[in-house]
Protein backbone atom coordinates (compact mmCIF):
# COMPACT_ATOMS: atom_id res chain seq x y z
CA UNK A 1 0.00 0.00 0.00
CA UNK A 2 1.23 3.51 -0.83
CA UNK A 3 -0.53 6.54 0.61
CA UNK A 4 0.23 9.98 -0.76
CA UNK A 5 -0.76 13.41 0.46
CA UNK A 6 -4.53 14.03 0.27
CA UNK A 7 -5.72 16.31 -2.53
CA UNK A 8 -8.49 18.79 -1.66
CA UNK A 9 -11.32 18.90 -4.21
CA UNK A 10 -14.03 21.38 -3.14
CA UNK A 11 -15.06 19.85 0.18
CA UNK A 12 -13.85 16.47 -1.01
CA UNK A 13 -10.48 14.82 -0.50
CA UNK A 14 -8.84 12.31 -2.82
CA UNK A 15 -6.52 9.72 -1.27
CA UNK A 16 -4.21 7.69 -3.49
CA UNK A 17 -3.34 4.02 -2.96
CA UNK A 18 -1.57 1.29 -4.85
CA UNK A 19 -3.85 -1.30 -6.42
CA UNK A 20 -3.63 -4.22 -8.79
CA UNK A 21 -5.77 -5.24 -11.76
CA UNK A 22 -7.18 -8.74 -11.51
CA UNK A 23 -9.45 -10.93 -13.58
CA UNK A 24 -12.88 -10.96 -11.98
CA UNK A 25 -13.69 -14.42 -13.27
CA UNK A 26 -11.82 -17.68 -13.78
CA UNK A 27 -13.28 -20.24 -16.17
CA UNK A 28 -12.59 -23.98 -15.96
CA UNK A 29 -12.60 -25.43 -19.48
CA UNK A 30 -13.10 -29.07 -20.38
CA UNK A 31 -14.41 -31.23 -23.20
CA UNK A 32 -18.11 -32.11 -23.33
CA UNK A 33 -17.21 -35.71 -24.13
CA UNK A 34 -14.62 -38.22 -22.94
CA UNK A 35 -11.58 -39.34 -24.91
CA UNK A 36 -7.83 -39.29 -25.42
CA UNK A 37 -6.17 -35.91 -25.90
CA UNK A 38 -4.66 -35.67 -29.37
CA UNK A 39 -3.36 -32.10 -29.42
CA UNK A 40 -3.02 -29.12 -27.07
CA UNK A 41 -2.47 -25.86 -28.92
CA UNK A 42 -1.75 -23.45 -26.04
CA UNK A 43 0.57 -23.14 -23.05
CA UNK A 44 0.27 -21.54 -19.64
CA UNK A 45 0.43 -17.76 -19.90
CA UNK A 46 -0.80 -17.62 -23.51
CA UNK A 47 -3.35 -14.97 -24.43
CA UNK A 48 -6.26 -16.47 -26.36
CA UNK A 49 -9.18 -14.95 -28.20
CA UNK A 50 -12.81 -16.01 -28.15
CA UNK A 51 -13.35 -18.89 -30.58
CA UNK A 52 -9.68 -19.91 -30.71
CA UNK A 53 -9.03 -23.67 -30.85
CA UNK A 54 -7.36 -24.77 -27.61
CA UNK A 55 -7.23 -28.57 -27.73
CA UNK A 56 -8.52 -31.64 -29.58
CA UNK A 57 -9.42 -35.21 -28.69
CA UNK A 58 -8.73 -38.21 -30.89
CA UNK A 59 -11.92 -38.17 -32.98
CA UNK A 60 -11.43 -41.38 -35.02
CA UNK A 61 -14.14 -43.41 -33.25
CA UNK A 62 -16.56 -40.49 -33.23
CA UNK A 63 -16.03 -39.95 -36.96
CA UNK A 64 -16.65 -43.65 -37.68
CA UNK A 65 -19.91 -43.52 -35.73
CA UNK A 66 -21.08 -40.50 -37.74
CA UNK A 67 -20.08 -42.10 -41.05
CA UNK A 68 -21.92 -45.35 -40.21
CA UNK A 69 -25.10 -43.54 -39.22
CA UNK A 70 -24.90 -41.30 -42.27
CA UNK A 71 -24.89 -44.38 -44.53
CA UNK A 72 -27.91 -45.82 -42.71
CA UNK A 73 -29.70 -42.49 -42.86
CA UNK A 74 -29.12 -42.07 -46.60
CA UNK A 75 -30.35 -45.61 -47.29
CA UNK A 76 -33.46 -45.18 -45.17
CA UNK A 77 -34.14 -41.79 -46.73
CA UNK A 78 -34.21 -43.42 -50.18
CA UNK A 79 -36.57 -46.11 -48.86
CA UNK A 80 -38.88 -43.50 -47.35
CA UNK A 81 -38.93 -41.61 -50.64
CA UNK A 82 -39.94 -44.80 -52.48
CA UNK A 83 -42.57 -45.52 -49.83
CA UNK A 84 -43.93 -42.01 -50.26
CA UNK A 85 -44.32 -42.55 -54.00
CA UNK A 86 -46.12 -45.84 -53.37
CA UNK A 87 -48.33 -44.13 -50.79
CA UNK A 88 -49.25 -41.43 -53.31
CA UNK A 89 -50.13 -44.24 -55.73
CA UNK A 90 -52.19 -45.85 -52.93
CA UNK A 91 -49.98 -48.95 -53.08
CA UNK A 92 -49.08 -48.81 -49.35
CA UNK A 93 -51.11 -47.79 -46.33
CA UNK A 94 -50.79 -44.50 -44.48
CA UNK A 95 -49.66 -46.47 -41.43
CA UNK A 96 -46.73 -48.03 -43.32
CA UNK A 97 -45.68 -44.65 -44.67
CA UNK A 98 -45.85 -43.05 -41.21
CA UNK A 99 -43.76 -45.87 -39.69
CA UNK A 100 -41.08 -45.39 -42.34
CA UNK A 101 -41.08 -41.61 -41.83
CA UNK A 102 -40.87 -41.97 -38.04
CA UNK A 103 -37.91 -44.33 -38.40
CA UNK A 104 -36.12 -41.76 -40.57
CA UNK A 105 -36.74 -38.99 -38.03
CA UNK A 106 -35.44 -41.15 -35.20
CA UNK A 107 -32.30 -42.04 -37.14
CA UNK A 108 -31.83 -38.35 -37.95
CA UNK A 109 -31.84 -37.54 -34.23
CA UNK A 110 -29.21 -40.22 -33.57
CA UNK A 111 -27.09 -38.89 -36.42
CA UNK A 112 -27.24 -35.33 -35.06
CA UNK A 113 -26.35 -36.53 -31.55
CA UNK A 114 -23.24 -38.25 -32.91
CA UNK A 115 -22.32 -35.19 -34.96
CA UNK A 116 -22.51 -33.18 -31.74
CA UNK A 117 -20.17 -35.64 -30.01
CA UNK A 118 -17.74 -35.28 -32.91
CA UNK A 119 -17.88 -31.49 -32.56
CA UNK A 120 -17.25 -31.84 -28.82
CA UNK A 121 -13.81 -33.33 -29.54
CA UNK A 122 -12.62 -29.77 -30.18
CA UNK A 123 -12.34 -27.27 -27.33
CA UNK A 124 -12.58 -23.54 -28.08
CA UNK A 125 -12.02 -20.46 -25.92
CA UNK A 126 -15.41 -19.09 -24.79
CA UNK A 127 -13.98 -15.59 -24.25
CA UNK A 128 -10.76 -13.59 -24.45
CA UNK A 129 -8.30 -14.28 -21.68
CA UNK A 130 -5.08 -15.82 -20.44
CA UNK A 131 -4.45 -19.53 -19.95
CA UNK A 132 -3.62 -19.77 -16.26
CA UNK A 133 -3.17 -23.54 -15.94
CA UNK A 134 -2.91 -26.56 -18.25
CA UNK A 135 -3.81 -29.68 -16.28
CA UNK A 136 -3.21 -32.48 -18.83
CA UNK A 137 -0.84 -33.50 -21.61
CA UNK A 138 -1.39 -35.06 -25.05
CA UNK A 139 -2.16 -38.81 -25.02
CA UNK A 140 -3.81 -38.63 -21.57
CA UNK A 141 -7.43 -39.72 -21.14
CA UNK A 142 -10.00 -37.24 -19.85
CA UNK A 143 -13.61 -37.58 -18.80
CA UNK A 144 -16.38 -35.29 -19.97
CA UNK A 145 -16.35 -32.08 -17.95
CA UNK A 146 -12.86 -32.57 -16.49
CA UNK A 147 -11.04 -29.21 -16.34
CA UNK A 148 -8.26 -29.20 -18.92
CA UNK A 149 -7.54 -25.47 -18.63
CA UNK A 150 -8.19 -22.57 -16.28
CA UNK A 151 -8.83 -19.36 -18.21
CA UNK A 152 -8.61 -15.85 -16.76
CA UNK A 153 -11.52 -13.99 -18.34
CA UNK A 154 -10.12 -10.53 -19.19
CA UNK A 155 -13.50 -9.30 -20.39
CA UNK A 156 -14.29 -8.84 -16.69
CA UNK A 157 -11.43 -7.06 -14.95
CA UNK A 158 -11.51 -5.52 -11.49
CA UNK A 159 -9.12 -3.62 -9.25
CA UNK A 160 -8.15 -4.67 -5.74
CA UNK A 161 -6.83 -2.12 -3.25
CA UNK A 162 -6.14 -2.12 0.50
CA UNK A 163 -6.96 0.80 2.79
CA UNK A 164 -6.12 1.55 6.44
CA UNK A 165 -8.65 1.48 9.26
CA UNK A 166 -9.10 5.26 9.41
CA UNK A 167 -10.13 5.26 5.75
CA UNK A 168 -12.40 2.25 6.22
CA UNK A 169 -14.27 4.10 8.98
CA UNK A 170 -15.15 6.79 6.42
CA UNK A 171 -16.43 4.32 3.82
CA UNK A 172 -19.95 5.81 3.91
CA UNK A 173 -18.43 9.08 2.70
CA UNK A 174 -16.75 7.59 -0.38
CA UNK A 175 -18.04 9.46 -3.44
CA UNK A 176 -15.87 8.20 -6.29
CA UNK A 177 -13.05 5.96 -7.43
CA UNK A 178 -10.52 6.25 -10.26
CA UNK A 179 -7.39 4.43 -11.33
CA UNK A 180 -4.35 5.43 -13.34
CA UNK A 181 -1.61 3.32 -14.86
CA UNK A 182 1.66 3.98 -16.62
CA UNK A 183 1.00 4.73 -20.27
CA UNK A 184 -2.59 5.85 -19.74
CA UNK A 185 -3.15 9.56 -20.20
CA UNK A 186 -6.47 9.78 -18.38
CA UNK A 187 -7.85 8.20 -15.24
CA UNK A 188 -10.41 5.42 -15.51
CA UNK A 189 -13.64 5.57 -13.53
CA UNK A 190 -14.36 2.74 -11.10
CA UNK A 191 -17.31 1.78 -8.94
CA UNK A 192 -17.33 0.03 -5.59
CA UNK A 193 -17.84 -3.70 -5.76
CA UNK A 194 -17.24 -4.86 -2.20
CA UNK A 195 -15.34 -4.13 1.01
CA UNK A 196 -14.18 -6.86 3.37
CA UNK A 197 -15.64 -6.13 6.82
CA UNK A 198 -12.60 -7.59 8.60
CA UNK A 199 -9.03 -6.30 8.58
CA UNK A 200 -6.12 -8.52 7.63
CA UNK A 201 -3.00 -9.08 9.73
CA UNK A 202 -1.67 -5.67 8.70
CA UNK A 203 -4.89 -3.93 9.78
CA UNK A 204 -5.84 -3.23 6.18
CA UNK A 205 -9.28 -3.58 4.61
CA UNK A 206 -9.61 -4.86 1.06
CA UNK A 207 -11.75 -3.17 -1.56
CA UNK A 208 -12.81 -4.66 -4.87
CA UNK A 209 -13.57 -2.05 -7.52
CA UNK A 210 -15.25 -2.70 -10.86
CA UNK A 211 -14.74 -0.66 -14.01
CA UNK A 212 -17.64 1.72 -14.62
CA UNK A 213 -17.36 1.15 -18.37
CA UNK A 214 -15.30 -0.91 -20.78
CA UNK A 215 -11.72 -0.86 -19.43
CA UNK A 216 -8.85 0.33 -21.59
CA UNK A 217 -7.42 -2.62 -23.53
CA UNK A 218 -3.96 -1.74 -22.26
CA UNK A 219 -5.05 -2.68 -18.74
CA UNK A 220 -4.28 -6.34 -18.10
CA UNK A 221 -4.48 -8.71 -15.15
CA UNK A 222 -1.49 -8.29 -12.83
CA UNK A 223 -0.86 -4.64 -13.73
CA UNK A 224 -0.14 -2.21 -10.88
CA UNK A 225 -2.31 0.91 -10.82
CA UNK A 226 -2.78 4.00 -8.68
CA UNK A 227 -6.26 4.15 -7.18
CA UNK A 228 -7.85 7.42 -6.14
CA UNK A 229 -10.62 7.32 -3.54
CA UNK A 230 -12.62 10.53 -3.23
CA UNK A 231 -14.08 11.15 0.23
CA UNK A 232 -16.64 13.82 1.14
CA UNK A 233 -15.40 16.14 3.90
CA UNK A 234 -17.65 16.69 6.91
TrEMBL record:
UniProtKB keywords: Coiled coil
Keyword Coiled coil: yes
This protein's record includes keyword Translocase: no
Stretches of the chain forming a coiled coil according to its record: 59-86
UniProt GO cellular component terms: efflux pump complex
Protein name, as recorded: HlyD family secretion protein
TM ranges: none
A molecular function (GO) term: efflux transmembrane transporter activity
Domain Multidrug resistance protein MdtA-like barrel-sandwich hybrid: 27-152
